[in-house]
């Protein structure tokens, strides 16, 4: 496997050669659509973790599209393959914006859950203080 089509990409955005993220990037660097089974065959496991790593901040926000309807079919954004550093950067900026938006939304959902989590923990502590075993053992 080779990533010759990505020579214009800063080295800091290329995963180490002996990582699953590198294997995934090599597969995607042909610009074609790849179904989930391609990744499963390549890695021997679910590709979720290496895809997340590539799409995240540590490797420079690769824009990897899921073009499948019900089953994962992935394709590297053509701007990464264009050979043009400006187009590559544009794709990364879009991915970073999406990443940060998703992060903010997850944080907001977790913040909404905080009062309930505090209340449930307080109830448990109260039951423990009363000597209740809980979970139907009383």
Mean pLDDT: 92
Please mark out the parts with pLDDT under 50 across 5 or more consecutive residues, or reply none: none
Q: What gap, in angstroms, lies between the N and C termini?
A: 61 Å
- Order of SSEs, N→C? HEHHEEH
Main sheet characteristics:
3 strands, antiparallel
Number of strand elements: 3
Q: How are strands sequenced across the largest beta sheet?
A: 1-3-2
| Strand composition percent | 5-15%
Q: Can you give the helix content as a percent range? A: 40-55%
Q: Categorize the overall geometry.
A: elongated
Rg over CA atoms:
21 Å
Oligomer: single chain
Compute the number of helices: 4
Structural class: mainly alpha
Description of the molecule:
By secondary structure, the chain is mainly alpha-helical. It is 51% helix and 7% strand. Strands 1-3-2 form a three-stranded antiparallel sheet. A hairpin with a 6-residue loop joins strand 2 (64-66) and strand 3.
Key terms:
138 residues; 4 helices; three-stranded antiparallel β-sheet; 3 strands
Topology:
Layout: H1 20-28, E1 34-35, H2 36-43, H3 48-55, E2 64-66, E3 73-76, H4 85-129
Antiparallel strand pairs: 1-3, 2-3
Helix pairs in contact: 1-3
Short description:
The chain has helices at 20-28, 36-43, 48-55, 85-129; strands at residues 34-35, 64-66, 73-76. By secondary structure, it is mainly alpha-helical.
């Amino acid at each position: 496997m080779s990533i010759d089509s990505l020579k214009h990409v800063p080295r800091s955005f290329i995963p180490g050669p002996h990582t699953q993220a590198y294997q995934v990037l090599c597969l995607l660097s042909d610009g074609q659509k790849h179904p989930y089974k391609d990744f499963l065959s390549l890695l021997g496991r679910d590709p979720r973790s290496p895809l997340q790593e590539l799409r995240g901040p540590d490797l420079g926000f690769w824009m990897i599209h899921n073009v499948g309807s019900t089953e994962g079919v992935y394709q590297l954004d053509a701007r990464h393959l264009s050979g043009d550093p400006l187009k590559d950067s544009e794709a990364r900026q879009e991915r970073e914006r999406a990443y940060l938006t998703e992060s903010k939304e997850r944080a907001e959902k977790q913040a909404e859950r905080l009062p309930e989590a505090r209340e449930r923990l307080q109830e448990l502590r109260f039951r423990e203080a009363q000597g209740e075993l809980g979970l139907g053992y009383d």
